[in-house]
Amino acid sequence: MTQNILLLAGDGIGPEIMAQAVRVLEKLKSEGLDIAWDNALIGGCAVDATGVPFPPETLTKCQASDAVLLAAVGGPQYDTLPREQRPERGLLAIRKEMQVFSNLRPAVVYPELVEASTLKPEVVAGLDIIIVRELVGDIYFGEPRGIEVRQTENGSERVGFNTMIYSESEIRRIAHSAFKTAQKRHKKLCSVDKMNVLEATQLWRDVVIEVSAEYPDVELSHMLVDNAAMQLVRNPKQFDVVVTGNMFGDILSDAASMLTGSIGMLPSASLDANGKGLYEPIHGSAPDIAGKNLANPLAMILSVAMMLRHSLNKVTYADRVDNAVKTVLAQGYRTGDIMTVGGKKVGTVEMGDAVLAAL
Ligand code: NAD
Ligand code: IPM
Ligand code: MN
Parallel, antiparallel, or unpaired: how do β-strands 333-334 and 344-345 relate? Predict the structure, then answer.
């Protein structure tokens, strides 16, 4: 049966990197992969066309598809819009609507890119970790939130406020997802929180410990988030799977990306309870390099591989895409962000050409 994919190119470098992902899909389709795709608007381009960042038509198409592939949203021209109209709200809305609570962000160092990292080769060589980020809760969604005038000890003034909140059930489901991920790997799970200060994360730690009783084969440890940030750059290979909340996971995964050489290398899968998923690179719309054929399309292409693997159950095709990325790196193709000595400098499209050839 034909599997349906929804493509959301978004803003900035989004359309450029999505174009390379589509070429990969076209190639696999021509060789027998039974898929069809449709496009829809999200983010700033949706605001421009419809006035809202996540139009109802996009939601309808999402619900009708087996998986969603998203490039990136956002841009400085939208940063002064009312918050509900900003591109990032569209991203949060699609994640919430799809209930993709489990965001898997693997950080893998390819041997050829060891020198592309700003960290010492011996620190990063061979790194293969995965951050499991809770994606539909936490301070990102908690109420109340806002900016308003209040009476403070300094008189009447504006205050900004957000609410960090996690329910037991939200923590339990992401913990299960993380333990299951660890079971398929080296069976080590580190839960990251800030329980020394924040009640919401005290509950996080308590519930993760409760859930751990069901996974006696997984070695569980805990780390405070500030220390985790430091340990990630000091000795990242001590980790196997890291599980954490939405905000800490956002920050730690950008830091982890640099271990691999570039944020342009990190794909992600965001899964719901049934394995349906939203797939996106972890980076943003990179307005500073948009429209210049400079963006690294590999995080986007690796997101296609994750989609084939996790939602479409097409493991052989997923392996082929992953292997094609390994091949182009071994052949020396480099976009500017992953440049290494002796590398062949290419643009977005030429990197796409190389991946197609390697497929
Ligand atoms: P960013 O990830 O877009 O860019 C950070 C830096 O990394 C920039 O210097 C950029 O050029 C570089 N970079 C990112 N992706 C790259 C790639 N594929 N190849 C080469 N270099 C790459 O983060 P930012 O600048 O903080 O945010 C820009 C916009 O993107 C903001 O509007 C933000 O809200 C949005 N954003 C969207 C997403 C998403 O759609 N998932 C994620 C993060 C940020
Ligand atoms: C990410 C992004 C988003 C997030 C923003 C753009 C809403 O930074 O996907 O990592 O914070 O989740
Ligand atoms: Mn982020």
Answer: parallel
Residue 185, marked binder: no
Ligand-binding annotation for 226, yes or no, is yes
Query: Strand, coil or helix: what is 288?
Result: coil
Residue 246: name the closest of 359, 358, 91, 82 by CA. 91
Q: In whole angstroms, give the CA distance from residue 220 to residue 182.
A: 10
Domain boundaries in the chain? 1-101+272-359
Known catalytic membership, residue 226: yes
Paired strand residues for 219 = 188
- The single residue of 226, 319, 326, 345 carrying the catalytic annotation is 226
What is the CA(215)–ligand 2 centre distance, in A?
Answer: 30
pLDDT per residue as tens digits for the range 99-127: 999 999 999 999 999 999 999 999 999 99
Q: Which ligand is closest in space to the CA of residue 88?
A: 2
Nearest alpha-carbon partner for 176 in 41, 273, 67: 273
**What CATH number does domain 1-101+272-359 carry, 3.40.718.10, 3.30.565.10, 3.80.30.20, 3.40.50.740?**
3.40.718.10
- Tell me how far apart the alpha carbons of residues 93 and 54 are, in angstroms, rounded to a whole number: 7
Contact 235, 226 (CB under 8 A): no
Ion ligand 3: residues, CB < 5 A: 250
Report yes or no for ipTM above 0.90.
Answer: yes
Ligand 1 test: best mutation among 285, 296, 298, 348, most atoms within 8 Å of CB? Answer: 285
Residue 275's pLDDT is what? Answer: 87
**Radius of gyration of the chain from Cα atoms?**
20
Distance from Cα 91 to the centre of ligand 2, integer Å = 8
279 is annotated as contributing to ligand binding: no
- Is 270 strand, coil or helix? strand
pTM for the whole thing?
Answer: 0.97
Distance 352 CA to ligand 1 centre (A): 19
Contact between 112 and 329 (Cβ < 8 Å): yes
Ligand nearest 255 Cα, by number? 3
